[in-house]
Amino acid sequence: MSNVQFLKKIEQDLKEAILSKRVEQISTLRMLRASLQNKEIELRPKKQKISEEIVMEVVKQEIKKRKEAIEMFKKGGREDLVSKEKKELEILERYLPPQLSDNKKM
After folding, report:
1. pTM check: above 0.90
2. Which are the contacts of 51, defined by CB distance < 8 A and separation ≥ 6?
3. Which domains are delineated in the chain?
């Protein structure tokens, strides 16, 4: 999947989530979209375009953040937040290639 197709897929999934009122998916996809836009802004001075590798890197970074947050919330006894982060993690893992998402399960 090219980076343009990938970005369009995120936008389409976001629209569907909004229409279906899936709150966790809406917030997670908005966060992912914002992270990708920030990465694009970061690359502009270097005259680089966002590539599929960069998109995957951003998704992996967001997944890593969720996994770290899950561990911290578990230590703090915040099962409500653990559950929220796990849902976000599941949503983000859908955007990884199948071989990567299978290896990254907790």
Report:
1. no
2. 3
3. 3-103 (1.10.1510.10)
